[in-house]
Specification:
By secondary structure, the protein is an all-alpha fold. It has one domain (7-59). The protein is 66% helix and 0% strand. It has helices spanning 7-25, 31-50, 54-59. The chain is elongated.
């Protein structure tokens, strides 16, 4: 697996996942929306931690700055 998620992208993913978690834990999100966004948050955290996003790979995108 080649890394395709850059540092800034990883930070944004982590912050978004934490924000979703806070909204769910704070009771601002409930029901179906909470479940769907909870899954999204887990995916964001996993892809941010791994540095690899399968969707980016499928679309041949990368946010990693390559040295030349």
């Amino acid at each position: 697996m080649t890394r395709n998620v850059g540092s800034a992208d990883r930070v944004i993913r982590t912050l978004a996942a934490l924000a979703i978690g806070v909204l769910i834990m704070g009771g601002q999100l409930a029901g179906t929306a909470a479940v769907i966004l909870g899954v999204v948050a887990v995916v964001l955290l996993a892809t941010g931690a791994a540095g690899f996003c399968p969707l980016y790979a499928l679309l041949k995108l990368t946010t990693v700055k390559r040295s030349t």
